[in-house]
Amino acid sequence: MHTPGAEPHALSRAQSAYLWLAMVFIASLLVADIVGIKLFRIPLPFPVLGFDAIEHTCGMLTFPVTFLLTDLVNEYYGARAARRLTYLGLAAALFVFAVINLAQALPYLDAPYNVRREEFDAIFGSAKIMYIASLCAYLVGQLSDIAMFGFLKRLSGGRLVWLRATGSTVVSQFIDSFVVSYLAFSLGRQLFADPANPPAPPSAIPAIAVTGYTLKFVIAIAITPLIYAGRAAMRRWIGVEPIGTPPR
């Protein structure tokens, strides 16, 4: 029964927190897919694991955030809520992909104040295979992360937060790296042949995947403390406990 003066659809603090986490998650995924077309190279002062520089796409600026938030949602809202987050991100990314294609298909206004069509197409049209490949890898990687997180949580009896947070990300990113490398540089280029971008030989796929995974592995280790910070924030500001934790 509705209480006079109260908001008919007011959210609880836990529901509001989930909504904000979903917003950051989806934004991180979308911006990673859009800026991922640009590659960066940061020279290292000394070789690390055989690499003298960090080379990857700018999508790595925000993509690791999605795995961090998936673990946080999994911890406090359960696997079903984490999978819901994954599907929302996928739906949003597909919507953006459709809008990008529609924008390219619209008739061009030939005016000096308009962006040049070649520049627009170069940015939004040259990485469609990578976009779809990254989404497929994202879906497989996220679902793997959710499953592994739950398995490690049950295995450790709800203890060892670092184990399930880092372990699930390390495993899922390994799968993600190989899936996106195979789809983007081999299968995708075979299905949509382009003389300017021939498929990579099968022997090159593992090397490409390992290069990307090495960076993701380091990032997964580096952001582990953030899961503890997120847990503290959820407990102190939202007042919720992890799933399976008895009330205090």
Written account of the structure:
The protein has 248 residues and is mostly helical. It has one domain (13-238): Arp2/3 complex 21 kDa subunit ARPC3 (Orthogonal Bundle). Helix content is 67%, strand content 7%. The protein contains eight helices and two strands. Strands 1-2 form a two-stranded antiparallel ribbon. Helix 1 (13-35) runs antiparallel to helix 2 (63-77). The longest helix has 31 residues, at 161-191. It is globular, with a radius of gyration of 21 Å. The model has no long low-confidence stretch (mean pLDDT 83).
Nutshell version of this structure?
This protein is mostly helical and 248 residues long. The protein is 67% helix and 7% strand. It has 8 helices and 2 strands, in the order αββααααααα.
Q: How is the secondary structure organized here?
A:
Blueprint: H1 13-35, E1 39-48, E2 51-57, H2 63-77, H3 79-105, H4 117-124, H5 128-155, H6 161-191, H7 204-222, H8 224-238
Helix pairs in contact: 1-2, 1-3, 2-3, 2-5, 2-8, 3-5, 5-6, 6-7, 6-8
